[in-house]
Amino acid sequence: MATFDITGIVQSLHAVRHNWRQTQSRNSEAGNRAFPSRDALASIIDSLKGVLFPMRLGPPDLRQESEDFHVAHALDAALHALLHQVKRELTYHASVGDGGRHAIDEQALAAVRRFAAALPGVRTLLDSDVLAAYQGDPAAGSVDEVLLCYPGVLAMIHYRLAHTLYTLGLPLLARIVAELAHAATGIDIHPGARIGAGFFIDHGTGVVIGETAVIGERVRLYQAVTLGAKRFPTDAEGNLQKGLPRHPVVEDDVVIYAGATILGRITLGRGAVIGGNVWLTHDVPAGGRVAQAASREGALANGIGAA
């Protein structure tokens, strides 16, 4: 029968963990793990999908006459579960004594109440996203098909919820929620990005939207589009400066076709159209057109830079 040096490996792993915690000045977690749970958040978000769209993303046997009862029960359970995860994030970010624990409990409860109050507005924005996908894709047979099948819509459900958490000062929970969608769809939307109503990502795979991107209303993106940073400023000691505006501003009614890479704090003016596979690092005026073939030959002549 095969044998393994379990004891030696466990001891070695313990030593590695201990060294990491010492070098990173990490505190020991007494008792249960005091850190948000990815699995718990996945369950919470699944419940919230059914709260937002009960007859499409709720229980398969749900009847419309029981819709409000289901929403009330599922919402109450999801909010209590979320409250526990919010407390974990707040505790993770703070060294608290006995007095601090009470303050964290109050702060967590206030944040979850604000999150709950924001859900009707989230549903309204998602309705606009679903309608944009249906109206923008000739292959879409119904709004129900869009909601049930389109990865871009799934990513936006997660983004809208994650962005709400982000604005409430819960960036870790927000990032976990966003990354659940990233893993499922290949669409990477940072929860700090600001995205207006009627946003549609067609096909979706490989889309990247950075933390400080600002996107207006009725914007359409295709697969493999990147709204990224051109450079990463550092301080005098060579450390990255975090939180600075470094991603594009995309105004209303812009269309960006597949494979386009838009970098830096540039502005794509209202109604601009960016062709496939364009590499763009300069502003585009309202109504401007940038195509791959024109990026070298005609863009500079038209006042549009592409590099």
Automatic annotation (TrEMBL):
Q: Kindly give the Pfam families that the UniProt entry links to this protein.
A: Hexapep
Kindly indicate whether the keyword Transmembrane helix belongs to this entry.
no
Q: Which reaction does it catalyse?
A: L-serine + acetyl-CoA = O-acetyl-L-serine + CoA
Question: Which of UniProt's keywords are assigned here?
Answer: Acyltransferase, Amino-acid biosynthesis, Transferase
Q: Could you tell me one molecular function GO term of this UniProt entry? A: serine O-acetyltransferase activity
Which EC numbers does the record give? 2.3.1.30
Q: Which SUPFAM superfamilies does its entry note? A: Trimeric LpxA-like enzymes
**InterPro entries (alphabetical):** Hexapep, LbH_SAT, Ser_AcTrfase_N_sf, Serine_acetyltransferase, Trimer_LpxA-like_sf
Transferase found in the keyword field: yes
Biological process annotations from GO: amino acid biosynthetic process
Which family is this sequence assigned to?
Answer: Belongs to the transferase hexapeptide repeat family.
- What is the protein's name according to its record? serine O-acetyltransferase
| Protein species of origin | Duganella lactea
